[in-house]
Amino acid sequence: MIRLGSKNALFFRANVALSMASVALQTVLLVTVWRAVYADRGVVAGISESDAVSYAVIAMLLWHVALPWQLSSIPERVREGTIATDLIRPIAIVGQSLLQSVGGVVGAMPGVVVGLAIGLAVGGLTPPATKVALVGFLLTATLGWLLATLLNLAVSMVAFWTTDTRGPFYVYRAIASFASGALVPLWFIPGWLRPFLDVLPFGLQVFAPLQLWQGQQPLGGLGGVLAVQLGWLAAATGIVAMVTWRALRKVVINGG
Q1: Which sign does the torsion angle of CA 222, 225, 231, 235 carry?
Q2: Which of 100, 175, 216, 234 fits as disulfide partner to 5, beta carbons 3.0 to 4.6 Å?
Q3: Which value, to the nearest 10 degrees, does the dihedral of the CA atoms of residues 218, 229, 104, 127 take?
Q4: How far apart are CA 113 and CA 101, in angstroms?
Q5: How confident is the model at residue 89 (pLDDT cuts 50, 70, 90)?
Q6: CA distance 185 to 48
Q7: What CA–CA distance (Å, rounded) separates 22 from 13?
């Protein structure tokens, strides 16, 4: 399944090349815009220009991996009717989708490498605060990806109720992108809005790992972030299990 996911992501070379070009363009634009935003100001809201630029580049790369152009392969498989075969495979449908998502990460790696290379070339990346900060970032970014993947999977299950999932996908993607801090660092969010975003799980996917990268201590530090992430992972697992249970009892497959 991992091989299938990576093969699907890398099969069309033109799409891979366009994805890499898109990441390269986004990297250059982010560095340019954030440097322009800071202009003659060295620090905004306690954040330096170099930290803000680096945050923007790495956040974009994290989101490139965690929320690609589709939620999962389930909507396509339901629409084509191949889900009927998938349901009788030894690996459960949720397991199949998670393994394919791992393959999707492999397929996203060329874009990540290009983004990092360009970010370094234009001086848009700052190193982690310490070695411990780097370890904390890698650990929480991995758990953040798993949390995003489970939530993506839960939303993609809408395909069992409707053949067109674009509406829910657009709404979910807009909320998740903003609330995660992938578009705008949550440091700059108005105070009245921040409590609403903090109760959502999306900030644990991008903002919290990057705070650790920069040596900050969100939720009391690495232990606090891990504890909250594990709590949300348990909740997301329960949601996926419940939605899957309901979905498999309401399967509508075109042509079958």
Answers
A1: negative
A2: 100
A3: 20
A4: 18
A5: confident
A6: 12
A7: 14
d(CA 62, CA 198): 19
CA dihedral 117, 118, 122, 124 (to 10 degrees): -80
Q: If DSSP states are collapsed to H, E and C, what string results for the chain?
A: CHHHHHHHHHCCHHHHHHHHHHHHHHHHHHHHHHHHHHCCCCEECCEEHHHHHHHHHHHHHHHHHHCCCCCCCHHHHHHHCCHHHHCCCCCCHHHHHHHHHHHHHHHHHHHHHHHHHHHHHCCCCCCCCCHHHHHHHHHHHHHHHHHHHHHHHHHHHHHHCCCCCHHHHHHHHHHHHHHCCCCCCHHHCCCCCHHHHHCCCHHHCCHHHHHHHCCCCHHHCHHHHHHHHHHHHHHHHHHHHHHHHHHCCCCCCCCC
Instruction: Specify the residue for token string 């996908």.
Output: 169
What percent of the chain has a predicted confidence (pLDDT) above 70? 89
pTM: 0.84
C-alpha distances (whole Å) from 10 to each of 7, 86, 153 are: 5, 22, 21
Q: Which amino acid is at 213?
A: W
208: Cβ contacts below 8 Å, ≥ 6 apart: 140, 144, 218, 219, 225, 229
pLDDT digits (tens, 9 = 90+) for 179-238: 999 888 999 899 999 999 999 999 999 999 999 999 998 888 899 999 999 999 999 999
Q: How confident is the model at residue 63 (pLDDT cuts 50, 70, 90)?
A: confident
Strand partners, 48: 43
Task: Please give the torsion angle defined by the CA atoms of residues 146, 152, 158 and 162, in that order, rounded to the nearest 10 degrees.
Answer: -140
d(CA 128, CA 135): 9
